[in-house]
Amino acid sequence: MPIETSYLGMTVELHEREVENSTYFRYCAAHEFRLQCCEACGLIRYPPTTACPWCASPNASWVIVEGRGTVHSYTEVHHAIQPAFKAFVPYLILLVELDTQRGGPTMHEALRVVGNLTNPDGTLAPRELVESVGIGSRMRMVFTDVAPGLSLPQWTLDHDAPQPERPWRYPGASIGSSTVPSIRSP
Ligand SMILES: [Zn+2]
To answer: N or C end of the chain, less CB within 10 A?
Structure first.
């Protein structure tokens, strides 16, 4: 059965013919983070795909992967991309580099998993939290239940891990504070 639902005012559809995606999200719905591990070369990959990006083998098994990692990059959204999102700005889209398979298969490659910054319960984080997270922050995965059979993997601060004193943030990225660059009159 395809899943049709809405999340934050946006329509979400998941069809079974998207075999890799529907398998991935079926595990997420059980709050299990699993990725495909290539049976030929042993490398784990993300996002889910039909074949291994390194050796092209189509054979893979779904292995449990620990949802812990470090913020590699982020986007802080202040302008809603559609009216329904107005209530949720500012929010963070995080690219988190997993501890698993870090530095492999080369020093430039890693498993980097996208998600929003959330509270531990999976709801979108408030502004104070948004403004406290940056590159280098240590994160752990939580799941946002959207509908029966559909949960999204998200990221929340890992309070069990040592955090950087000051995670790197884009200069002037905070609004409503003195860090907003002002246009000087001549
Ligand atoms: Zn492979």
So the answer is: C
∠ Cα 95 99 101 (to 5°): 100
Residue 38 class from Cβ within 10 Å (0-12 exposed, 13-18 middle, 19+ buried)? Answer: buried
- Report how far ligand 1's centroid is from the alpha carbon of 71 (Å): 26
φ, ψ of residue 83 to 5 degrees: the values are -55, -35
Three-class DSSP category at 77 = strand
pTM of the model: 0.89
3-state secondary structure 132-158: CCCECCEEEEEEEEEECCEEEEEEEEC
Tell how strand 3-7 and strand 44-45 pair up. unpaired
Ligand 1 centroid to residue 38 C-alpha, Å: 5
Q: Ligand 1 center to residue 170 CA distance, Å? A: 36
**Separation between Cα atoms, residue 93 and residue 120, nearest integer Å:** 16
Q: Residue 65 burial by CB count (10 A; 0-12/13-18/19+): exposed, middle or buried?
A: buried
Instruction: Specify the pLDDT at position 101.
Output: 97
